[in-house]
Design goal:
Strand order of the largest sheet: 2-11-10-3-9
Number of helices: 24
Distance between the termini: 63 Å
Structural class: alpha+beta
Oligomer: single chain
Number of strands: 24
Helix content: 25-40%
Length: 664
Amino acid sequence: MEEARKRIEELTKILNDANYEYYVLANPSITDQEFDKYLRELETLELEYPQYAYENSPTKRVGGEVIDKFEKVRHSIPMLSLPDVFSEEEIVNFFKRIEKEENKPEYVCEQKIDGLSVSLHYEHGHLISAATRGDGLVGENITHNVKTIKSVPLDLHRDINIEVRGEIYMDYKTLEELNEKRKEKNEPLLQNVRNAAAGSIRQLDSKIAAERKLNSWIYHLPNPEDYGIKTHMEALNFMKELGFKVNPNNKIIKTLDEMLGYIKEQADLRPNLDYAIDGIVIKVNNLDMQKHLGYTSKYPRWAIAYKFPAEEVYTKLTDIIFTVGRTGRITPNAVLEPTLVMGSTIKRATLHNEDYVLMKDLKIGDIVSIRKAGDVIPEVVAPLKERRNGTEKDFIMISECPICKTKLEKKEGQVDYYCPNIHCPARKIESLIHYSSKNAMDIDGLGEEIVEDFFNMGFIKKIEDIYSLDEHRKDLEELEGYGKKSIDNLLNSIKISKTRSVERLLFGLGISGIGDKTALLLSKKYKSIDNLMIATYDDLVSIKDIGPILARNIVDYFENNDNLTLINNLKEIGINTDYLGETEKFNDLITNKKFVVTGTIEGYSRDEIEKIIENYGGSCSGSVSKKTNVVIVGDSPGSKYQKALDLGIEIWNEEKVLDVLKTL
């Protein structure tokens, strides 16, 4: 509990400082993504330990403080923010909750503009004041600057008293032009369109704001019932008729599929927009339903703001720990403050080796940028050295195995350290996990944690033991979480693994340097593990894509008596050691071409698509380069699609892929 109290205190200070820097100084030191992450953590802790929550907790605020340079304006109707969500699951939960409480609701989906919220007041159709959100109750009078924004009407099309709300923003082209001028004057460049818009609207001199060419979208009418309006979409159309700039991408949707489809559509459109959006706002359309759903203390219950996954985000490197692989290789791993990257929560990332850490100059305690390499694997990009405060600790490479304490070895000319103890428990566990993995023997039910548990319980100490696990059935049934059905499924999966083609076994054995694609290449060439075992170094090195180091690794593996014993034992158990795949076929669209598969194709997994390509003499890679011939783009393709466009690489969509598959 003391640890929770200290963390609440720390997070409160971080977020209050961040609010002040952003809203008061217009000079943020952390990103929106970092702010969202810390805020969520604090909300969770305060729910569990309400006695430690501070009166000035940022969870009790809607926005930030008001700077003293501007006249303060009290909002007659509070400007509440919307609850943020970050995953499809949270969208589905929102949809189900509304559907449960309301009868056949409609929703309005809108682009979430990345700018600065504004409230505009008109009397008799004339603009009389404009204010920022501020803390939601009190904002700043920015009328003199808003009048310079050409998309904000000074006079409406009707003689009417009204307040409307929207977003002030700057487009990308304007930012680029501004930065070109600032570069010429040796002035610091503006970081992004949102910060540029916020800084521009807070200028005391309206001439500066006018030069910044700000723009606006209007999206909210606080009191629609005063004008006889029944739905949010009616309010949008009403404001458009009055002369306000209303986004044309707003759309009424009725089903969950339509909602998710709109989000994907706008995510695809996003790179081509001339202004920034950072998500999608979803609102219940019917105003009576909105009233019925009501509000929490901070948010309306009838709306959410979905934020697009960040491609590169910042988080804290809290520690560097070391793991032992199946070959004894020692790998440093980054322990990160949990953060969302492209829809996934990332807590760990490999740092590969000592040279990698030193090259990037990483220190424990650094704020680091991370991304998903190839949209899949978490990667630490770089430390933010300007964020260091002197408390960071230097990285020190270990000299002993973290598990068995054996002195580590480093082979001449190589970057990796190894634990030489072949009996090291960590090596054995990793080899068992690898053998059971999806691309190896694909034993469903033998995941990392289960393998580790079974190893520690003495059920599985070596690969052969997997195939006698049925002898421990009674012991398994006594374990928590292991019912008869789950045990039957596990034992059946083990039985099925005996019949798999030899390339899976070859990959599963963990020979240094042999990945799943190399295992397939060798299996096609030699047809059985017996033939491969008698291959010479010269035979192997003559094969395309088999270099001298890999050839030597293969020969050394099969000259080791322990490895030969393992293979003979597996044969006696009944494991297949022959290649069962199809003979390679020819197709002029596929053969000898390099492919990258991204996204999903209806009816096929990515592994299935890649296997078909390889069976027809094509090759597959995980990243797009100038050597790539074709990029196959399915549903939700990610950044590889854009890179293919940039490089002018041939793209096959789902329809094209399915047409090609029909001809095979």
